[in-house]
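Q&A log
Question type: sequence-to-structure
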Amino acid sequence: MILKANENDLKDILQLQYLAYQSEANLFGSRDIPPLKQTLDEVIDEWSSGTILKMTDNNTIIGSVRAKESEGTVYIGKLMVHPNHRHKGYGSMLLSEIEKCFPDKRYELFTSTRSLDNIRLYQKLGYTIFARKVVNDELEFVYMEKWKEHSDGVK
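Response status: OK
Response body:
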């Protein structure tokens, strides 16, 4: 089940984030990545200014995604699924649901060039790479976008 998160869910979502982003940290051999350093207050700020969805299984949060709209673009981030529930299509379901919260928009997200599974998932769901940003010798991001066509076929 996918629902909008409420404030009482945010601590559990942050704990899931710490667990889910271990695999991303392993790609770099470092725990020094922003999702592993985020605080509960920062998650509360994101919840207050945007939309956070949760996916539950037996009343346990097993997935989440966040988005915030600015000037016609919806910035999507922190798409995560509990490691024990990956490869079941849940990430695709969460991404589709967050897009439905913001119909007829341009969607943008980013991921590390090392996150090949993420890139493949996003491409499968219609996202294309439009920019790259080198952060340092170890880290490069790809920025991906998707345009949702209006029902009249106009972008």
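Response note: The beta strands are 2-4, 51-57, 60-70, 73-81, 106-112, 128-134, 140-147.
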